[in-house]
Design brief:
The chain is of the alpha+beta class. It contains 8 helices and 10 strands.
Length: 216
């Protein structure tokens, strides 16, 4: 985004740029709030989620550095339809959304950047919706583990996923009950696909997980 701005536009953004830090599990915005800022995750991990029927939470997507979020509702003329929470301590850059709106109207390349961002996000959302509704729970959980690896990478051992999720969050990400998530993790462990150590998950057989994700 930065590269397509004129010098005067960059200066304007810098003048209005703020940085905020959020503790682990802190709310960044809530469903129903009015969007006021474009947000960019500079450090940490953030989950976008929605509370459903009976208080069940569904994780919609995960944000990694350096991704933009919190702006779709503004362009749709809506309040937030989801909530955002820091998975771990997070540092977030914020720019007033009305300033972004102004720059979009005067810079065609800047506008195209956000059109592409929203289009890519919509495509991923469509694919995820199909996968979460049609795949068997094994396929859903395998896909979630691979998605976590792709999003946050691995630790120095080149095997442990660099995010520690509770079983509830993993179940929410995979659209299943917590008990099913626990049973499926145990099944993957017994099949020597992963090693589980508390909230740490180490991938042992990635190719088999990919097969389960593809055909699950």
């Amino acid at each position: 985004m930065w590269e397509i701005l004129e010098r005067s536009e960059k200066d304007l953004l810098l003048e209005n740029f703020q940085v905020q830090t959020f503790k682990k599990n802190s709310l960044i915005y809530c469903e129903g709030d009015t969007p006021t800022h474009l947000m960019c995750l500079l450090k940490g991990k953030v989950k976008i989620y929605k509370d459903g029927i009976g208080g069940r939470t569904q994780i919609i997507r995960l944000i990694r550095p350096v991704q933009y979020f919190g702006y779709r509702a503004f362009f749709a003329g809506e309040n937030y339809g989801t909530s955002a929470c820091a998975f771990e301590a997070a540092t977030i850059g914020l720019v007033p959304i009305d300033l972004i709106d102004r720059l979009i109207k005067q810079n065609n390349q800047f506008a195209y950047f956000f059109i592409k961002e929203l289009s890519v996000g919509l495509g991923k959302s469509d694919t995820r919706t199909v996968n979460l509704t049609q795949k068997h729970i094994r396929g859903r959980l395998a896909e979630s583990l691979l998605h976590l690896k792709e999003s946050y990478g691995l630790e120095e051992d080149n095997a442990t996923i660099n995010i520690y999720m509770s079983r509830d969050d993993l179940a929410s990400l995979s659209n299943m009950t917590t008990s099913n998530a626990i049973r499926t993790l145990s099944s993957f462990y017994n099949e020597k696909l992963i090693i589980v150590d508390g909230r740490k998950i180490k991938i042992i057989n990635e190719e088999q997980l990919k097969k389960i994700s593809r055909f699950g």
